[in-house]
Amino acid sequence: MYEGTEMLRAYKAVIRNNYVEWDNDIHEIINSDNPVSVYITIIDEPKPETNVERGKCMVSALNTLVKIKAFSDVDDPVEFIREMRQERELPGRQDAD
Question: The pTM is what?
């Protein structure tokens, strides 16, 4: 499902009558003549109110990542996170791994 570790670009939009209406002008970024694969995240769902409910949501999200093998191509998780965060070594912390 996920082809690489590149960062995903995010754009604001509204789905209305089964059509995506973009909040800003992205015609230069997305050519409407060609199909574009997207992931849609619904952001106005009610948030869990208790720590237990939040924990259940986190477990569900992690289980989904396991099912789709989202990080199966990651050989070194520590290096992967460093690259994602663009971390640098901190003075006196070279042995933090």
Answer: 0.39
